[in-house]
Amino acid sequence: MSTTHGKLLTSLMVTSLVCFMALDFAEARRGGGGGGGGRGMSRGGPAASGSFQRSRVQPQRRSSNRNMNRNVNRQQRPSNQDRVRPNQGNVNQDRLDQRQDNRQDRFDQRQDNIDQRQDNREKVYDDRKEYYDDREEWYENRWRRGAYISVASWNSMDCRYNMTVVNSITYYDCNGVRYERVYRSGQTVYIIVN
Amino acid sequence: MRLHDRMLACLLAMMFILTAQAQTPAEQVVEEDLETLAIDPEALEAFKGMSDYLGAAKSFAYEIESSYDVVQRSGITVEFGGSGKIVVSRPDRLWMESSRRDGVNGTMIFDGENIWAFIPDENVYARAEQPGNLDAAIDFAISDLNLKAPTSDLLSSNLYDEVVPKLTGALYLGEAVVAGVSCEHLLMSNDYADFQLWIASGGQPILKRIVITYREEPGQPQFRAQFKNWQIPARDTKGKFEFRPPADAKRIRFYVPAVDTDLEDAS
Fold first, then answer.
1. Better-scored residue on pLDDT, B16 or B26
2. Domain limits of chain B?
3. Are the Cβ atoms of A48 and B213 closer than 8 angstroms?
4. Contact by Cβ (8 Å): A149, B267
5. According to the model, what pLDDT value does residue A1 have?
6. pLDDT-derived band of residue B196, with 50, 70 and 90 as boundaries?
7. CA B245 to CA B97: how far, in whole Å?
8. d(CA A189, CA A80)
9. Has residue A18 got a pLDDT over 70?
10. Dihedral pair phi/psi, residue A73, rounded to 5°
11. What average pLDDT does this structure show over A18-30?
């Protein structure tokens, strides 16, 4: 009984090891744990955003280094013509090598595409960062002119406003500030007009 | 014996978990396709079917339940949403009604000459002149008036030609059932966003669901909408596109910002 369990245990451990290796291999193919294409089909996790966040902090040169390494690898990989095989007449071996080359080329191409997209994302991020910085500055200046408050905020101001109509436009004067009620993105807000 | 039994149970549990986590070959194939971001003709064909079907419709109507993420300054993502009804009559009529989850309701109408926005609960309306066709009016409403018109992409009379040249990827992901309707599930990508479409299979290739992921935006916020009650052609449109403000309604102006003002309330 004990011997049977022992055998079963051994075979299960071997199976587990195989499973681990298979998963590691699959993970490696996806680009080292979420860096590459795994994000597209993730069903319940932040895989996609995880890759995005990583690219945000990833230095530009890192992807360039990867590109360089791959190019070097490509150059170093011998072509079919350059290869010397023990059995030159082995057609199957030629086909196998050809398929291997094709696979490698496709893999390299995919990696290039991924790096290109990553570079694009980094550029877009930089542009957006600049945009947000500009917008932040603009936001700070908004208080001086053109700021707006919601209807709820307006109602909570407990202000006895005076209404003034100028060129058919109604203005609301409250504590020395002039407001106009306007339509903004599906709701009304009060903008400060002076 | 007991130790063996425990180890056996642990290993079985571990194997079960690992097996459950392992991806099917089909999923891995799709992953590789996503890496290359290929343009899949099957996906384009399904998309063209929907585009042609909607583009040829003289009028149509649909309802949506939608939600979208907003990444706050703190980094926390908050979901907002609501429902809407849209009625289109080409070439130059549009009626949209929206109900937000926070209780704000509104109506937007394009009558061929003007864009009207009406908030019945506050009895206020705004009007902007915009003579022209529907496509131009929507562009004006979104770009110049800063109005929100979710799913307005669908209202284009030439959706396929507008979208496809800018695609960086398109994949046919397979069949899926949405709200009891068999659909073609597509994933498309351009420089701005990734968007998944579920287009009904069969003779009426209407959109049943859309998920847009703005992958370049911080937090990768999504827009999601489920479509229902499609009418092609639209029924009961008489008088739908004419807006007469209530007698006591107050007219206000559209707030047309000089720059994007998609910011929080300043108060």
1. B16
2. 37-241
3. yes
4. yes
5. 47
6. very high
7. 15
8. 71
9. no
10. -60, -40
11. 35
Contact B216 A114 (CB under 8 A): no
- Write out pLDDT tens, residues B133-176: 998 998 888 878 878 888 888 888 889 998 999 899 999 999 99
Q: Do B124 and A183 touch (CB under 8 A)?
A: yes
Q: Which of residues 144-163 of B touch A (CB under 8 A)?
A: 146-148
Which of A8, A122, A175, A184 would you mutate first to test chain B, the one with the most B CBs within 10 A? A184
pLDDT bin (cut points 50, 70, 90) of residue A105 is confident
pTM of the entire predicted model: 0.61
Instruction: Spell out the residues 6+ positions from residue A14 whose beta carbon is closer than 8 angstroms to its own.
Output: none
Question: Residues of B numbered 38-97 whose beta carbons fall under 8 angstroms of chain A's beta carbons: which are they?
Answer: none
**Closest by Cα among B211, B160, B155, B162 to B183:** B211
Tell me the torsion sign for CA atoms B192, B193, B194, B199: negative
What architecture (CATH level 2) is domain B37-241?
Answer: Clam (2.50)
**In the A/B pair of chains, how many CB contacts fall below 8 A?**
147
Identify the band that residue A169 occupies on the pLDDT scale cut at 50, 70 and 90: confident
Q: Is the pLDDT of residue A97 over 50?
A: yes
Instruction: Please report, as a single letter, which amino acid is at residue A73.
Output: N
Residue A158 in 3-state DSSP? coil
B9 inside 8 A of chain A by CB: no
Per-residue pLDDT at A91: 54
Residue in B255, B259, B263, B264 to test binding to A, most A beta-carbons within 10 Å: B255
- Complex ipTM: 0.76
Name the CA radius of gyration of chain A, rounded: 32
Give mean pLDDT, residues B228-256.
93
- Residues 6+ positions from B178 with CB-CB distance below 8 Å: B198, B208, B209, B226
What is the nearest CA distance from B245 to chain A, expressed in angstroms?
A: 15
pLDDT computed for residue A44 by the predictor: 25
For the record, the structure tokens of B52 come out as 């042609």
Q: What is the rounded distance in angstroms from the CA atom of residue B259 to the CA atom of residue B245?
A: 30
